[in-house]
Design goal:
The complex is a heterodimer. By secondary structure, chain A is an alpha/beta fold. Chain A has ten helices and eleven strands. Chain B is 45% helix and 12% strand. Classes of the chains: A alpha/beta, B alpha/beta.
Chain lengths: 297, 339
C-alpha cells in the first residue's frame, strides 16, 4: 500500500497539531507545509520535521502539486482565503479538507456521515464544521437516529489559550456554521450554537453541553444506548472524548454533558477543541485515502 | 459634573429574575412610564442579549424582534439599546435591532476577551450606532488589564466603555480603581459607564463611586429588577443623585411610582440579597446563575450556595449556565458515593 501524500496550509496551532497526527498515519504522508510568513515558527518547525515548506501561500505550492503527487490538502487558514485555496487546488485534482468555517463542501462529522460521503465517491471539498460541531453533532445525531429532534442546541466552552485570533475575529462564523451543521448533519429541525471562552488558570478542558428537544416523550432507554454507542465511535479517534453526565431527561428535553481531552500532540491536553478538529480531519483524510484513492490506484 | 445618563435595565437584566417571561404588554407599560419619567436610555432584549432565547438561558415569552418592535416606536424621548454577547448573538441580530430603530448597541465580552467583539463593534460603528464595549465580570481583571481590553474595543470603534460588575463583587474602591484608571488613560471623547449588581448591597455606593471616578452612564433598574439581588435600584440612585446635585434629568417621584405600581407587582420573587444571591457577590459569580442554582438545588438536592461557591472556585464566566446542572449532577453523584 502506498501512502497518500498531503499538504497542510496554515502552519499555526491546528496545522502543526495535524502534522504530528499525520506523521503517525499508516495511510497518509505529510509532505508540504504552506504559510505566508517566512519568519513563522510553524514553517520552521515543519522544515525541521523534514517537510517541504513555502511562505508564498498556496501559489507557492501549486507548481509542486503534480510532481510531488499531492492528493489531499488540509486548509487551516481562514474562511476568507479558503475559497481561493480550494479552487486552485481542486483544479489540480487535490481533495480539500477544510478546517475553516468556510463550508464550501459538504460538512463532515466522521462517525455521523463520513461513510455516506465515501459512498458518494470523490468530492472536491469536505468541511470539518467547527470544533464545537465535531464535539457535539455526534450526540445530536445519536438522539435524532432514535427519534425526531425538533431543536438541537449546543454550548461549547473552551479555554482562552485554545482560541486563536482568527476564531475571535470571526466568532459569528462559529455560531452560524455550527448551527447549520446541527441541522444538516445532526438531523435537528432547528439548530443553535453558543460558544463561551473561559480564561481560568489552569486552563479548563473543553466542555460541551448538548440539549435536544425531541418530538413526543423521549425513549429514554433507546436514547441512552444510542448515546453510549456514539461516544465509543468518537473515542476511536479522540480517546479523551468523555460523557460526564447524562443523558438526562426532563420533559421532552434530553441533555448530555461532555468533556473533550486532547491527545496533547502539539497542543496541550486541555485544548480538546483543537484536537477533535485535527483528529476528525486526519480520520476523514485517512478514510478517503483508504476507500477512494487506493481504489483508483 | 457633567450630566449623568441613566440607562434602564428593568427590561433586559430584569428578564433574568422573571425567567425571560416579561410580556410585550409589560414591556410597553414600563418603558413608556420610564420614558415619561425622563429616563433617556432603555435596554430591551432577552436577559442574555440578542439571540439569548435558548434552552441554556431560557426561552423568552416573545422574540427580541417582538419586544423591540413594540417598545421602540412608542418612545417619545427615550432611546432604546440592545445587548449582544458575541458567541450567543450575531451581527445578523444586530442588523435586525438596527432596522427596528435601536440606537445603542452594547457588545459584551468577558473582561479579558475583548477581541471577540471586533466583528460586532465594527458592524455597529459602520451603522453609526452609539457603540458600547461592555466588559463583564470586571472584578476578575486588574485595572491595567481592563484598560488593555478597553483599548481593543475602542480601536474597533466603541465610543463608550463599561466597567461591568456582573457578580456584584466589587467594593467602592474596586470601582474607583477601575473606572479611574480607564478615565485617566482613555481618550476623553470615550465615555465610561458602570453596571452594578446589588448582591452585597453595594449597588448605589458603587455607582456613586463610578460617577466620582468619571463614569457618565449608569445602569439602573426599577425596583432593582435584575439578576441576582438585582441591579442598582433606579429610584434609590436618583434620590441619592438629587441629594448630591448630580444632573440626571429623571423625575424621582415618577420612577418611584413605576417601581411601586408596575414593577413590584409583577415580580416573580422579591429581589433581595438572600443567602444565594449574596453568595454571588461573595464568590464573584455571574448574577444570572442564581435561579439556575436554585433550580438545581430543588432537583438534585445539592445546596445552591455550595454550587455557587464551587462555580466561583472554578472561575466560571458569563454564559456558562450549562455548567450548573452538570456540576449539580457531579456533586450529587459524589455525595452518593460518600454515603
Amino acid at each position: 500500500m502506498k501512502k497518500i501524500k498531503c499538504a497542510m496550509i496554515g502552519p499555526g496551532n491546528i496545522g502543526t497539531d495535524l502534522l504530528y497526527k499525520l506523521q503517525r498515519s499508516e495511510w497518509l504522508e505529510p509532505v508540504w507545509m504552506v504559510g505566508i510568513d517566512p519568519t513563522s515558527e510553524g514553517l520552521a518547525r515543519a522544515a525541521k520535521m523534514g517537510l517541504k515548506t513555502t511562505a508564498e501561500g498556496v501559489d507557492g505550492l501549486l507548481p509542486h502539486v503534480l510532481e510531488d503527487d499531492i492528493k489531499i490538502a488540509f486548509d487551516a487558514t481562514s474562511a476568507y482565503v479558503h475559497a481561493e485555496n480550494s479552487r486552485k487546488l481542486n483544479e489540480l485534482g487535490v481533495l480539500m479538507i477544510d478546517l475553516t468555517p468556510a463550508a464550501i463542501g459538504p460538512f463532515c462529522v466522521p462517525p455521523v456521515n463520513l461513510e455516506a460521503l465515501l459512498a458518494a465517491g470523490e468530492v472536491p471539498n469536505v468541511n470539518m464544521v467547527t470544533c464545537g460541531g465535531q464535539a457535539t453533532i455526534p450526540m445530536v445525531a445519536a438522539v435524532s437516529r432514535v427519534q425526531p429532534v425538533e431543536y438541537g442546541e449546543i454550548i461549547a466552552t473552551v479555554s482562552t489559550k485554545s482560541v486563536g485570533p482568527g476564531t475571535r475575529k470571526n466568532i459569528d462564523e462559529f455560531t452560524r456554521t455550527t448551527a447549520g451543521a446541527i441541522e444538516k448533519v445532526g438531523g435537528a429541525k432547528q439548530g443553535k450554537a453558543i460558544i463561551i471562552i473561559n480564561p481560568a488558570e489552569p486552563p479548563l478542558m473543553m466542555r460541551d453541553t448538548v440539549h435536544c428537544l425531541v418530538e413526543g416523550e423521549p425513549d429514554q432507554a433507546a436514547i441512552t444506548e444510542s448515546v453510549h454507542a456514539m461516544i465509543k465511535e468518537v473515542q476511536k479517534y479522540v480517546p479523551g472524548y468523555k460523557l460526564v453526565n447524562g443523558p438526562i431527561f426532563d420533559g421532552n428535553r434530553v441533555s448530555i454533558f461532555l468533556e473533550v481531552e486532547g491527545l496533547g500532540d502539539f497542543l496541550p491536553k486541555y485544548a480538546g477543541n483543537l484536537d477533535i478538529m485535527t483528529a476528525a480531519a486526519a480520520r476523514t483524510a485517512e478514510m478517503f485515502a483508504e476507500h477512494v484513492f487506493n481504489k483508483e490506484a | 459634573m457633567s450630566k449623568i445618563i441613566v440607562h434602564d435595565m428593568t427590561l433586559r437584566d430584569g428578564m433574568h429574575p422573571q425567567r425571560h417571561q416579561t410580556t410585550v404588554e409589560q414591556m410597553i407599560a414600563i418603558s413608556t412610564a420610564l420614558d415619561d419619567a425622563g429616563v433617556p436610555l432603555i435596554e430591551v432584549t432577552h436577559g442574555d442579549g440578542l439571540g439569548g432565547s435558548s434552552v441554556n438561558y431560557g426561552f423568552a415569552a416573545a422574540t427580541d424582534e417582538e419586544y423591540l418592535s413594540a417598545v421602540v416606536p412608542r418612545m417619545k424621548n427615550a432611546k432604546v439599546s440592545a445587548l449582544l454577547l458575541p458567541g450567543i448573538g450575531t451581527v445578523d441580530h444586530l442588523h435586525m435591532a438596527h432596522e427596528i430603530g435601536v440606537s445603542t448597541i452594547r457588545v459584551a465580552t468577558h473582561c479579558t476577551e475583548a477581541d471577540c467583539s471586533e466583528q460586532h463593534i465594527t458592524a455597529a460603528r459602520k451603522l453609526e450606532m452609539d457603540t458600547v464595549g461592555f466588559l463583564m465580570l470586571a472584578h476578575m481583571a486588574s485595572p491595567e488589564r481592563l484598560l488593555e481590553e478597553a483599548k481593543k474595543m475602542v480601536s474597533y470603534g466603541a465610543n463608550c466603555i463599561y466597567v461591568t460588575d456582573s457578580a456584584g463583587y466589587m467594593l467602592p474602591q474596586d470601582v474607583l480603581d477601575r473606572v479611574g484608571h480607564l478615565r485617566q488613560h482613555l481618550d476623553p471623547s470615550i465615555e465610561l459607564g458602570f453596571h452594578g449588581h446589588h448582591n452585597l448591597g453595594m449597588g448605589v455606593s458603587n455607582t456613586v463611586a463610578a460617577v466620582q471616578a468619571g463614569a457618565v452612564r449608569v445602569d439602573l433598574a426599577s425596583a432593582g429588577l435584575g439578576a441576582g439581588a438585582g441591579n442598582t435600584p433606579l429610584e434609590l440612585f436618583i434620590a441619592v443623585a438629587n441629594r448630591m446635585g448630580m444632573d440626571t434629568g429623571v423625575d424621582l417621584f415618577k420612577v418611584q411610582d413605576v417601581a411601586e405600581d408596575l414593577v413590584i407587582p409583577m415580580m416573580h420573587n422579591p429581589i433581595r440579597a438572600d443567602r444565594d444571591a449574596a453568595t454571588l457577590g461573595y464568590a464573584g459569580v455571574y448574577s444570572s446563575f442564581l435561579l439556575f442554582a436554585k433550580r438545581a438545588e430543588a432537583k438534585y438536592g445539592v445546596s445552591a450556595r455550595e454550587i455557587l461557591m464551587e462555580l466561583g472556585r472554578r472561575g466560571t464566566v458569563g454564559g456558562q449556565e450549562d455548567m450548573i446542572e452538570d456540576l449539580a449532577l457531579t456533586m450529587a453523584k459524589a455525595r452518593e458515593l460518600q454515603a
